[in-house]
Amino acid sequence: MRIEDSKLKTGLDALGVDLHSGTSLAERTSLGIGGTTDLLRITKHESIPHLISLLERHQVPYKFLGGGSNLLVGDGELPWVILQLARPDPEIVLAGNFAHVDAAADLGRTVTYCAKHDLGGMEGLIGVPGTVGGALRMNAGAYGMQIGSYVREVKLYRAAERRIEILRGQEISFEYRHTSFAPDDMMLAVTLELPSKPFKDILQGIRICNEKRRSSQPLGQKSAGCIFKNPPGSSAGRMIDELGLKGLSVGDARVSDRHANFFVNAGCASANDMLTLISDVRGRVEKAFGVRLENEVVVWNR
Ligand code: EPU
Questions:
Q1: How many of the other CB atoms lie within 10 Å of CB of 171?
Q2: Atom of ligand 1 nearest to the CA of 217
């Protein structure tokens, strides 16, 4: 979708929103799949309620992009514009055991920055790609920890209230790859309370998690992490593997040879290739095990 209306462009300028025309989502997602649209980069959180009203007045649909690491976007010209937070400087401010982090901050860099200041707890998240906002929305987790455990406060744009609010950690429910945020709420910033730990101990934990990840996941390839959530008490990857589906392909969309719950873009996969592969694998797992796998990957299709 292209923004051409000059009044709208002037309105965006006035809000300090940068317009990037014809942005390729394939270049902004870890899967390397997705069509093109205009991207609006937001420099001031406080402009968001005005921006949303402006877009609605001009009947421009929008979606909010984090780091693009758990996302499968449709092909071709996309029917909505993309909103994304610009990264502020600084992204992280520490005060004792509290880390105030902007949602646009890179998750891995946040973990290492806190580690260097002797704040631990998030070692398991080190290899998880994406932004802090994305991790928060999905309650990202790995190796026995999840980000929600450390959340004390969240600043967000509440779509239903049409305003920016601060929620305390206790007001939010964090479950396995799920939170109580509404789908169109936008994460803006978070305060984490992290346990004190010597840097060298945190580093040791980080090294162990990195090694586990390297030995079991296809890190160098284009993927969106795990495609399916694990059903209670079971592993989607193990089930897919047991069916001998590693290497199964639709075009360049392929079930990873290394971890069967990672589907990789081995070249120029289209969104349709990936969606066909997902539905094929889901169908086979359901037939064999009677379990209907739920997507972990977020799909933006028309
Ligand atoms: N397994 C297989 N074959 C495979 C993959 C896994 O037999 O192809 C077996 C493993 O040997 C193991 C079991 O399945 O016995 C579980 O595998 P793994 O430890 O790799 O964990 P997972 O359940 O597949 C989850 C998360 C990952 C996270 C790891 C480590 C989900 C859907 N996945 O994977 O998160 O990194 O644990 O904590 O919850 C993600 O969310 O995108 C993600 C990658």
A1: 11
A2: 20
> 295 CA to middle of ligand 1, Å?
14
Structural domains for the chain? 6-85 (3.30.43.10), 92-200 (3.30.465.10), 219-300 (3.90.78.10)
Ligand 1 atom nearest to 216, measured from its CA: 20
Nearest alpha-carbon partner for 177 in 298, 281, 10: 298
Q: Ligand 1 pocket test: which of 122, 215, 227, 238 has the largest number of ligand atoms within 8 Å of its C-beta?
A: 238
Return the active site residues. Answer: 177, 226, 296
* pLDDT per position as a tens digit, 84-132: 999 999 999 999 999 999 999 999 999 999 999 999 999 999 999 999 9
**Across the strands, what pairs with 73?**
300
pLDDT in tens, 36-65: 999 999 999 999 999 999 999 999 999 999
- Which SS3 state, helix, strand or coil, does residue 19 take? strand
- Enter the pTM of the model: 0.96
Question: What amino acid occupies position 32?
Answer: G
